[in-house]
Amino acid sequence: MLEKLLSFSRHHKMALLMLLDALLLPLAMWSAVLLRLGGNWDPKLDPFLWIFAVPPLWVLPIFIKLGLYRAVLKFLDDRIVYTVFVGVSLSVLVLMAVILMAGIGVFPRTAIIIFWVFAMAYIGGSRFLLRGVVRRIDALDAPRQPVLIYGAGRAGLQLMAGLLEGREYRPMAFVDDNPQLWRRTFRGLAVYSPHELPQLLQDTGAELILLAIPSASRGRHREILEKLEPLHVPIKRLPGMADLVSGEVRVTELREVGIDDLLGRDPVPPQPELLAANIAGKVVMVTGAGGSIGSELCRQIVRQKPARIVLFEASEYALYAIDQELAKLAPAVQRVPFLGSVTDYPRLLAVLQGMRVDTVYHAAAYKHVPMVEHNPVAGIVNNAFGTDTCARAAEDAGVATFVLISTDKAVRPTNVMGATKRLAELALQARHAAGSRTRCVMVRFGNVLGSSGSVVPLFKQQIASGGPVTLTHPEITRYFMTIPEAAQLVIQAGAMGQGGDVFVLDMGEPVRIIDLARRMIHLSGLQVRDERNPQGDVEIRCTGLRPGEKLYEELLIGDNVLPTEHPRILRAQEYHLAPAELAQHMAALRTACEALDAAQAFALLQGVVHEFKAADATADWLVSARN
């Protein structure tokens, strides 16, 4: 019956509520008079029975004017009490006036006050009773997932209110670190200690934990997630406070726990003067603009209001994608997209001169270790000669600053990719030593979270498909940093160098990849399947180190490092080759690459990058096919 009533149109529901009030008001007055008279009816009131029927004639118009019937029952809040209070109070004043004008002297005056109390109780109580019934029916129609809310602050309470109005989640309880909140209740939900979580999950049947602490630091998020990991319960979180304040997202827009929540440190706020030094009001060019780092550099650059941003990219689709994104992100900034290769000197020179470029951020590179390992000639040509070609074109075009995005794999490299990036560094250092007019700066850092080829998206995909999660070695470690933080630090480091500088970004502590895999599995609500837990959900399988892969990455070749004005940026003091010596190596290497002589190119690469410890399994696929 109730379900049929709820299916009525909006106007029909309003009419039914008016009919209900028209019945409740006479009942409230009758109850008030009987209570005042001690339950005994006064026959003197018989001629004035009409007074019990007329209150709806003025009360209903008052309620209509106050908007009482426009409120949706399911979403009623405490403000409805104020509306009923005003409406009933006005109706009592009108009732008093009617009784005086009609001369009903036998009507007990104190019954009017009692009528006010009963009318408030009947009208207001009926609304909350109906709201409960509607919500109950709605909950039965659409079973919702039971959840716990971690954080009983303002954001947590707003999240609870939003979830109660929705049809997806049913909040069961709060969890908070503040002992002063324990055992308090908010709209019927109690607050518990984090130590009670295991029992609470069992008692409530909660299938998800929602983190509602958007103002907490990234370090604090990591601490909480580490405590929640053994529970093997999926976790989602609110967006950051900045997104909530800006209005970009709502409090009910939950997100998956990001890998930066698991590993990230609290980023150091960027220094505005360093961010703007090479960009504001200048023409800036990014090579590899459509890649993971290149595209984030573009996003950071347009926020600093350059006179123009030049996008240089070999992939047509990647160039189109970043150009369209920047058009929405910063429509006022002029964008000029160019297709081209970083090994094409005439094309580079024409673009740099034609656009009058002031600053170049060189992010174009082949970076996938196994791919470059088996395509060494292509890796050398693109990474080493491509960098040298870009730097030569920048120097000839009168570019003021050239910033190379390097990698921790350039330090004592064991793979071709790392060796080519170290050779790119040596090429820039040699240009500086030869008196280049262009200030060449190199910035070296480790893995960035979410970049193409990163283990993080691969692990997510493997977990979603039921495993196994594959890694190459149980002891392998890597440094990690978020893409936005890396891009900001690159821009700031580029503003500090005097030329020939190698800057190293502080990546924090290295992370064991197997620990990362376990955390991602646990925080997805699953268990690792191994010898101790053969009934687990996802297996972690070690496949063996790939050709050229290191167990441990490094950021410094030597121990000589100097601080800079930024706490996360260090200046490395490392060897470089004399320009004439490097030129001889580069000429021989170019000849070998042009002849597609992979073995000779590989041997020459070992000769010029002194600390290159090549892997035994390195083999060019083309040479293997010929043999």
Q: What's this model, at a glance?
A:
This is Nucleoside-diphosphate sugar epimerase/dehydratase. The protein is of the alpha/beta class and 627 residues long.
Describe the model.
There is one protein chain. The protein has 627 residues and is an alpha/beta fold. It has three domains: 2-140, no CATH class; 145-257, Rossmann fold, CATH 3.40.50; 272-447 and 481-507 and 554-608, Rossmann fold, CATH 3.40.50.720. 47% of the residues lie in helices and 15% in strands. The chain is built from 23 helices and 23 strands. The strands form five sheets. It has a nine-stranded mixed sheet with strand order 10-9-8-11-12-13-18-23-22, sandwiched between helices. The protein has a seven-stranded mixed sheet with strand order 3-4-2-1-5-6-7, sandwiched between helices. A hairpin with a 5-residue loop joins strand 22 (561-563) and strand 23 (569-572). It is elongated, with a radius of gyration of 36 Å. The relative contact order is 0.07. The chain crosses the membrane at residues 14-35, 47-68, 80-104, 110-130. Keywords: Membrane, Transmembrane, Transmembrane helix. Belongs to the polysaccharide synthase family. Residues 284-573 form the Polysaccharide biosynthesis protein CapD-like domain. InterPro entries: NAD(P)-bd_dom_sf, Polysac_CapD-like, Polysaccharide_Synthase-Rel, SAM-dependent_MTases_sf.
